[in-house]
Amino acid sequence: MTSVSRPKAAIADRLAEARERTLALIEPLDDEQLNRVYSPILSPLAWDLGHIANFEELWLVQTIGDRDPLHGDLGRFYDAIENPRKTRGELPILRDAELRAYLSDVRERTLEVLDEVEIEADAEDPLLREAFVYELLLAHEHQHNETMLQLLQMVDGYEPVRSEPVPGAAGTGPEMVAVDGGEHIVGAPGKGFAYDNERPRHAVELGPFEIDRAPVTNGAYIQFIEETGAEPPMYWERDGEGWVRTAMGRREPVDPAHPVIHVSWHEADAFARWAGKRLPTEHEWEAACAGADRERANLDQLSFGTAPAGAHADAPASCGAVQMLGDVWEWTSSDFLAYPGFAPFPYPEYSQVFFGDTYKVLRGGAWATRTNTIRPSFRNWDLPQRRQIFAGFRCARDAG
Ligand code: AVJ
Ligand code: FE
User: Is 140 in the pocket of ligand 1 (CB under 6 A)?
Assistant: First the structure.
């Protein structure tokens, strides 16, 4: 009864792995850099770190373990809805040694509670069924790693402690590939971890369409800028006749063969119209993604950049498109709306409060996304003017 079961040991290992990666991201930074406000649209890293620990405490210690919080009502400063990003630098949040102690003290209690709970596939508590709440916590820390990486793009001279070469050689093929019209099934199945906004799985009727085989490249985007006078992507600067990328304080020539990244929805939409195409809907995107393999994609944060457009040509989706998963998030034309029959779980502030025509859906994950969080049904969202996310796009058009 008391020995830690194998599924529990696996959860503990995965929690440890997630934390290792979080701490590796901030290892090169000092406390001043963790506390610094780099941008009004991004939290200081210290807020993300405290929020990761507080979310864990809230769900895995207070809710599941029925314990009191370690720091009274400190949690209100880590509530993402109550505290807009531009205010987070001013909050009386934990910093420095206290912050590090909070991360490890919460984790210690999490492991105590894990030892006590009953995790079964058919547990009565929906939070424990299929270990949902632990998957939620893992995905949450993984997703905040990506938010932290957005901020790290602004840190001059940032050098990752761990990085690996960009995987996947580029192949060639037609500019666009065809997807049949008819009934397509979208959304996550009833079993297995997914967010509430991916459910319920349902059928949608699509007209036949074509979609770009690979994401739009920097080279194509430069042509668009030169012809239309559009703004360059975030982290680009003019350098004589050409362009350099300035993320992390570097100055590297923009590689025309790579997917364009750090563009807004408005810019992606304008490019698509300039090219005589349009953005795909999120359902078209999901239909085109069928058969893609997340294990053969540039995901998981270790490459610290994109692979050339057309990479992973050996692992295409069924329709022939490549890089549907990884490299760059892809803007779709769709507003972030509830699927028919949506039910908020486990809390309305994860998805429901964002539904409407304010946010646009992005799909597929980027190099900065942890593999675990990505599946064809995963829906990300952001404001259409935002460029700090790792977003590019591919275009579509009705089949003629
Ligand atoms: C799905 C990336 C839009 O950052 O607001 C993190 C993920 N939710 N903590 C966000 C999330 C709660 C979410 N996005
Ligand atoms: Fe969060």
Answer: yes
